[in-house]
């Protein structure tokens, strides 16, 4: 399997962790980096290549080279580089859809720089990749060895969650999660645990009625379609070790309900996975880390985990 790493924000830690991850995994999988080689850490050994399907050098980072313009200053986003960052993502998606690579692993971007420098019109990577892939809806999953989680609503205020949490959104999220685990993780009959919205999953309506009026009817409908669904469950009792043995993924109603448990269990090893795309996409579960960029101390653990997971997902699609 060949996985391409897109450069991400050049002034962040993306180039550094890409090089460290390649060094850790180069004997185990095929990787290429898409970006401007001038933005790699000083002293990086790299080889410019033209075709990711061909023979790759064993002792230097294979680079699909692009020219972004000025050199970045570590820790300071430069909007002049925005067009290049976007082009790297477009290149990775195009190569994946053409079958020239088996998936992409995207380094973190700085959305403000993309907006100011290139009029970037998307909330983030995920929505941009969905547009590139020609799909209307995708699902964000965070995964580590101990847990997989999917938030139904993502980057919105907690006060807005009840209004945004609709039967159609919940049903679509559950269907995409079910299909993604089948296609990308080789689970023929994935077990999906579904959290309630309210404390104690509403406690029969005493602490909220969304479980009764919205969540349970959707679960009953999808169970009739053959999905293996557990819940709605109280969120405060579904993430301990014993509970996690009974499901393959936890679908949660809002951002922190999903992300607090996984980041507590494995902060460094979490991987962001986009389900529902026509190609494999993973990403490390952290940001650009401007405060440590250029210092050589960035931890590549999440990037390594993201690359490994991309390779495993690509292999599952080929079975």
UniProtKB/TrEMBL annotation:
Which pathway does this polypeptide act in? Answer: Cofactor biosynthesis; pyridoxine 5'-phosphate biosynthesis; pyridoxine 5'-phosphate from D-erythrose 4-phosphate: step 4/5
Task: Write out the residues that bind a divalent metal cation.
Answer: 155, 200, 255
Catalyzed chemical reaction(s):
4-(phosphooxy)-L-threonine + NAD(+) = 3-amino-2-oxopropyl phosphate + CO2 + NADH
Function noted in UniProt: Catalyzes the NAD(P)-dependent oxidation of 4-(phosphooxy)-L-threonine (HTP) into 2-amino-3-oxo-4-(phosphooxy)butyric acid which spontaneously decarboxylates to form 3-amino-2-oxopropyl phosphate (AHAP).
Q: Tell me what organism the protein belongs to.
A: Ketogulonicigenium vulgare (strain WSH-001)
Which Pfam families does this one have?
PdxA
SUBUNIT field: Homodimer.
Gene Ontology, cellular component aspect:
cytoplasm
Which GO biological-process labels does this protein carry?
pyridoxal phosphate biosynthetic process; pyridoxine biosynthetic process
Q: Which class of enzymes does this protein belong to?
A: oxidoreductase
Which range is the signal sequence, renumbered to this chain?
none
* Location of the protein in the cell: Cytoplasm
The entry's family comment says: Belongs to the PdxA family.
Q: What is its main location?
A: cytoplasm
Q: Which note does the record give on the cofactor?
A: Binds 1 divalent metal cation per subunit. Can use ions such as Zn(2+), Mg(2+) or Co(2+).
Enzyme Commission identifier(s) = 1.1.1.262
Report what the protein is called.
4-hydroxythreonine-4-phosphate dehydrogenase
Listed binding positions for substrate are: 125-126, 263, 272, 281
Molecular function GO labels: 4-hydroxythreonine-4-phosphate dehydrogenase activity; cobalt ion binding; magnesium ion binding; NAD binding; zinc ion binding
Cofactors, names only: Zn(2+); Mg(2+); Co(2+)
Q: Is the keyword tRNA processing assigned to this protein?
A: no
Q: Which UniProt keywords apply?
A: Cobalt, Cytoplasm, Magnesium, Metal-binding, NAD, NADP, Oxidoreductase, Pyridoxine biosynthesis, Zinc
Could you share any additional remarks the record makes about this protein? The active site is located at the dimer interface.
């Amino acid at each position: 399997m060949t996985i391409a790493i897109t450069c991400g924000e050049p002034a962040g830690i993306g180039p550094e962790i890409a090089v460290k991850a390649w060094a850790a995994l180069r004997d185990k999988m095929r990787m290429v980096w898409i970006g401007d080689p001038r933005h790699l850490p000083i002293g990086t050994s790299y080889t410019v290549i033209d075709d990711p399907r061909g023979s790759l050098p064993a002792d230097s980072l294979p680079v699909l080279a692009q020219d972004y313009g000025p050199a970045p200053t570590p820790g300071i986003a430069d909007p002049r580089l925005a067009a290049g960052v976007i082009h790297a993502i477009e290149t990775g998606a195009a190569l994946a859809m053409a079958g020239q690579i088996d998936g992409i692993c995207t380094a973190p971007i700085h959305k403000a720089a993309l907006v100011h420098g290139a009029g970037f019109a998307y909330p983030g990577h995920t929505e941009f990749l969905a547009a590139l892939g020609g799909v209307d809806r995708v699902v964000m999953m965070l995964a580590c060895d101990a847990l997989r989680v999917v938030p139904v609503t993502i980057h919105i205020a907690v006060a807005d969650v009840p209004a945004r949490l609709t039967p159609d959104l919940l049903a679509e999220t559950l269907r995409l999660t079910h299909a993604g685990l089948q296609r990308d993780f080789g689970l023929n009959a994935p077990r999906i645990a579904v959290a309630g919205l309210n404390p104690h999953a509403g406690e029969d309506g005493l602490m909220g009625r969304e479980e009764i009026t919205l969540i349970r009817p959707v679960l009953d409908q999808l169970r009739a379609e053959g999905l293996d669904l557990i819940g709605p469950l109280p969120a405060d009792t579904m993430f301990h070790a014993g509970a996690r043995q009974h499901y393959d993924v936890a679908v949660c109603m809002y951002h922190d309900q999903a992300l607090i448990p996984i980041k507590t269990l494995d902060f460094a090893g979490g991987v962001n996975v986009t389900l529902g795309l026509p190609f494999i996409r993973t990403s490390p579960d952290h940001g650009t880390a401007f405060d440590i960029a250029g210092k050589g101390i960035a931890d590549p653990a999440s990037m390594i985990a993201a690359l490994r997971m991309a390779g495993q997902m690509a292999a599952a699609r080929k079975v």
